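4.2 Preliminary Data

To establish feasibility before requesting continued support, the project team ran the inverse folding procedure on a target of 515 residues. The structure was first converted into the token representation described in Section 3, and no sequence information of any kind was made available to the design step. The complete token record follows.
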């Protein structure tokens, strides 16, 4: 009898090898020797994300920094776009400061269920609009046009100089710069604010576009007089008419605009100043750097705007969960599948990335909006939990590896193939992707399949990272290939989370599916 022992390596990664045994008579026999994976995966991934080992939904992406969200619904999915804080983080490092000047890309992501998010990559404004300085704080709308296509209109801050825009006929692009200059800046007649940025766009019930923007040196602390609104041209890339004022008390920045049941709803971030002046006896003073809102039926008439209340306090006030320190505030109120949601940012990931540089992440909360009586928005609190899953994930159809509800934090993705498609990139050490709420209630899987490339391995777990993997795939392919393997272990019927633990430097993971 020949006994072979294999010791675990220093990472605990499993190994397979073929051993050839040659007898004295010249006969040979090959046997496969496996070194088991004895690593405690839950311990390894215990402090990489607030999401991976929990059912928390915030932040939406836990492997990069994002901020200043906007959102739009299209074909059963919600698409969220954000400032690429990660670009500044990569520039200055964990000991640096998020001064944002190096950010020249916007982040794209989408979801069909509000907990599993597909990362679609970046909108590279440095290439699309090389004339501009930085790209921050996007706002998006869409409209069916005469060509029968849905057109997407993206407005964003060109640093502090003005508001620029991009257009596309798909929510993930390709994007183009139709103007080659700012749509709004101080060269435009009527733009009388120092910082005409932080755009918010909406298309009203008659199909007309509206744009809000503004910031800068305040005229007074109580009434800074820097919030502006203008009607957009029929082409959505021009202005139609004069620019009007919105008298927003303690205004700072972060304009946002909704059109709800015949009412224009303007949201903004208040300033940090002491509230020494407050003319309302029936409305509480807005707290520092919160989100407040105003309403109007005739938005170009400054006197028509009514201050209503504040409805989201600064995340650093720890109202709700302790999701980070005080920060600036930027938000977007939107509707998806008939339900209201509130997107914002907080410093969810700084502790996990070992930085205190002011790098932010987008989160979402469910919102209650009374659409009658001139619109009323009750207070919303920031949480790690986030929104509920709207429907279960189907593991028996092709799913993208870049769709995640939690990761091991420093997962990397590459662009491959069509615009908006990403693939997960392996590393020497183990990485993990997780999706939530997979529906195994009607079928127990018998086979697993994945589209992969390079040399690496995927171990698949259901419900938790304990015990042996449900199935493992080994890949050694120079070209894209689809590998499959029968599943010998059983899982209980029901709903569970799926964990993909993968590794291999240069290994790429694109799609997966159960049978």
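Position-by-position output of the design step:
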């Amino acid at each position: 009898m020949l006994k072979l022992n294999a010791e675990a390596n220093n990472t605990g990664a499993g190994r397979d090898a073929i051993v050839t045994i040659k007898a004295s008579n010249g006969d040979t026999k090959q046997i496969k020797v496996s070194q088991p994976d004895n690593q405690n995966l839950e311990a390894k991934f215990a402090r990489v994300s607030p999401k991976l080992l929990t059912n928390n939904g915030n932040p939406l992406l836990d492997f990069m920094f994002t901020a200043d969200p906007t959102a739009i619904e299209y074909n059963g999915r919600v698409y969220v776009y954000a400032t690429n804080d990660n670009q500044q983080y990569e520039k200055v490092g964990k000991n640096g400061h998020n001064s944002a000047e190096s950010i020249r890309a916007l982040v794209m992501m989408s979801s069909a269920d509000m907990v599993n998010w597909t990362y679609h990559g970046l909108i590279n404004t440095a290439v699309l609009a090389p004339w501009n300085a930085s790209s921050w704080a996007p706002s998006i709308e869409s409209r069916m046009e005469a060509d029968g296509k849905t057109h997407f209109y993206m407005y964003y801050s060109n640093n502090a100089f003005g508001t620029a825009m991009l257009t596309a006929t798909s929510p993930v692009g390709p994007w183009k710069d139709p103007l080659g200059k700012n749509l709004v800046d101080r060269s435009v007649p009527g733009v009388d604010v120092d910082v005409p940025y932080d755009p918010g766009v909406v298309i009203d019930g008659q199909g007309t576009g509206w744009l809000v923007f503004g910031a800068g040196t305040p005229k007074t602390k109580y009434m800074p007089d820097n919030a502006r609104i203008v009607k957009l041209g029929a082409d959505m890339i021009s202005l139609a008419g004069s620019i009007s004022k919105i008298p927003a008390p303690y205004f700072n920045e972060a304009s946002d605009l909704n059109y709800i049941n015949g009412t224009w709803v303007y949201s903004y971030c208040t300033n940090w100043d002491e509230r020494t002046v407050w003319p309302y006896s029936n409305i509480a003073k807005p707290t520092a750097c919160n989100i407040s809102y105003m309403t109007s039926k005739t938005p170009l008439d400054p006197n028509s705007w009514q201050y209503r209340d504040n409805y989201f306090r600064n995340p650093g006030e720890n109202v709700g969960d302790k999701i980070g320190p005080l920060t600036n505030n930027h938000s977007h109120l939107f509707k998806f599948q008939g339900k209201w949601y509130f997107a914002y940012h907080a410093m969810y990931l700084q502790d996990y990335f070992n930085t205190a540089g002011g790098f932010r992440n987008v989160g979402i909360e469910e919102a209650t909006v009374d659409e009658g009586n001139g619109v009323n928005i009750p207070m919303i609190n920031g949480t790690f939990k986030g929104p509920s899953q709207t429907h279960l994930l189907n593991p028996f159809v092709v799913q993208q590896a870049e769709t995640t509800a939690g990761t091991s934090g420093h997962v990397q993705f590459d662009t491959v193939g069509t615009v908006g498609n990403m693939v997960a990139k392996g590393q020497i050490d183990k990485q993990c992707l997780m999706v939530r709420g997979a529906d195994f209630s009607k079928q127990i899987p018998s086979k697993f399949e994945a589209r992969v490339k390079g040399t690496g391995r995927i171990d698949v777990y259901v419900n938790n990272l304990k015990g042996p993997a449900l199935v493992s795939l080994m890949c050694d392919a120079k070209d894209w290939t689809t590998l499959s393997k029968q599943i010998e272990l059983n899982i209980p019927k029901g709903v569970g989370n799926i964990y993909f633990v993968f590794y291999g430097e240069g290994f790429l993971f694109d799609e997966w599916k159960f049978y």
